[in-house]
Description:
By secondary structure, this protein is mainly beta. 6% of the residues lie in helices and 38% in strands. The chain has helices at residues 32-38, 168-171; strands at residues 2-5, 12-15, 19-21, 24-26, 46-52, 58-64, 72-78, 81-87, 89-90, 98-103, 110-113, 117-123, 128-134, 143-145, 183-184. Strands 1-2-11-7-13-5 form a six-stranded antiparallel beta sheet, with no helix packed on it. Strand 3 (19-21) and strand 4 form a beta hairpin. The longest helix has 7 residues, at 32-38. It is globular, with a radius of gyration of 16 Å. It starts with a strand and ends in an 8-residue tail after the last strand.
Amino acid sequence: MHIETAAIEGIVAITPPRFGDHRGYFSEVFKDAWFRENVADVTFVQDNESLSGQAGTVRGLHFQIPPFAQGKLVRCLAGRIMDVVVDIRVGSPSFGKWLSQELSPDTGKQLWIPPGFAHGFATIEPNSVISYKVTAPYSPQHDRGIAWNDPAIGIRWPFDERDMVSSDKDKTLPRLADLPNHFPYSAQQPQD
């Protein structure tokens, strides 16, 4: 597996190798022991999948607070997305900064997002299917988010904001400046 560390500490892009011939390819997309040794020593407890039918659909920016904070390993099974993370660890050198990775089945690239980050994505192609493993189960009481269009964060989405489709819930999420300190940063904190 090929690993790329990102400009923001803790975020890792992983591209599994593919072995192909005239029939197509085979790829081991996840190996627990390898992931624990090379990326983060975590246990995944749930797999999630979403379909977004329309290009320009934005989902996020979501996270869960402790004790149900989630690490996520995200990949795109169909279509193409701009996957986005925002550092919400108060005191982090990259607090409020964002980065993005394009994910598609063409590359097979996956993105590891540890707790302490808000996560979202925008679909670049219609009928995009996203699959992600999480380290904690979904908990409605611990579910939170920040506005995907917060000007203080300044994410450069692939579509004009007026053309993007989002849920009613995501349209009412608070801005980063209004977020309580759910994730205090420590330089020695583990990455899981």
